[in-house]
User: What shape does this take?
Amino acid sequence: MKKFFAFTLAEVLITLGIIGVVAALTIPTLISKHQKKVYVTQLKKAVNTVQNGYKLMLADAGVDSVKDTEFFKLLASGSDMNKLNQEARKYFNIASDVKKIDREYLYADAPGLAAHSSTGNYFSGYPNTVLISTVDGAEIFFHNSSASTVYIDANGYSKRPNVVGLDFFYLNVTENGSLANWANNSAKEWCLLQNGYTTPHKPAGCLEQVMKDNWEITYY
Assistant: This one.
C-alpha cells in the first residue's frame, strides 16, 4: 500500500503567513524604489527640455546670455503672451499654450512647499511666473525676474506627491544655458531638513544631489 505525504493545514497556513509577512515587508520598499526611478526619469527629461531649449535660443539669437534672447525679454516684460507662446513653442516641447501664474496658484497643500512660504503658497514671492506644460507631463515654471530660476514639477501638479526632492525640484541655470552649482557642497543640507522641518522644504540642492548620486533619489 502506497503512503502519501502531504502538508497539514497548519503547515500550509504557517507558510502562507510567513510569505505574507515577507511580502508586507519587501513590497512597499520595491514599490518606493520603482516610483523614485519613475520620478527621476521624468525629471531628467524635463531638465533636458530646459537645457536643449536654452541652447537653441542662444544659437538662434547668436548671443552668449539667455537674458538677451527674445523669449526672456518677453518673459521679463510679461506684456505679450501671444509672442511669448510662439517663442516657447520654438524651443520647448510643450503640450499647450504657456500660462501666466499669479500669486494664488498651486502648492498651498504640498508638503515642504507650503511650509516654505509664510503665506502658504510657494509661488507667492514670484508673481507672473510662467508655466510651460511639456508633452512628457512635466510642468516647468520660469519666473520673470531671473533667467536662471526654473522650477520643475516632474510629473505635473495633478499627480502627487508634489513633494520637494521627489517630484518637485529647483533648476539653476547659468546665463550660457548650462546647469549651475547652486548649493555647492551643501546640496543635501539645502534639500533636506533644516531649522526643525520634518520634510524637505527647499528644492535648491535636490537636483544637484540626485545628479551627484548618479540620477538616483537616495535621501528618502
User: Anything to note?
Assistant: Residues 11-212 form one domain.
